Amino acid sequence: MKTRRLLGLLTLLLLAVGFTGCSDDELSTIQPMSNIDDEIITFFENELPAMGTSSSFFTDVARDSEICYVVNDDKDFQHLYKGKFTPPTIDFKHSTLIIGQCQMTEGGYLVKRQFVENRGDKITLNLHIYQSLDYAPQVITPLYYWGLYPKILTNNITVNIIK
To answer: What pLDDT score does 97 carry?
Structure first.
C-alpha cells in the first residue's frame, strides 16, 4: 500500500515538473555587449545624436517613423549608413547590431538601459528611457538607439519603450 501511494506521489510530482519545467516559449534575457571598441561608440554617438536628427541613418524614412533593424552583416550595415565617414569595422560573425528610431512627443529623451528578451523566433528589445531635461517642448522628435549584442539570428523584433 505504501509503495503504491509513493509511486502515485512520484508520478504526480513528475507530471507537475513536466508541465512547468519545459516550454517552447522559454524566455532568455540578452544584455548588450559591454566590451565595445571606443571607435564604434564614438561613431554612433556622432552619427545618431541624442538631440536633433541624424543625417547618416534613416534618411529614407520619415522622421516620425518607428523602425528597427537587426543587422547581421556588413552589406546590410553599409546599406543603412548614408554618412560621409568610413564606418568602423563590426565583427558580425559574433555580434548583431540592433539600430532604430522611435517617435517621441517630447524632446530630451535618452536610453538609460536596454536588453533583449528572446522567445525563440521572436525577440523584444526593451528600451528603458528617461527625460534628461526638466522642460522639453511638445514636438515630435526621433529617439535613436543602437546596441551590439551577441549573435541574434532572427529579424522578427518588437520594440518596447519603458518610461
So the answer is: 98
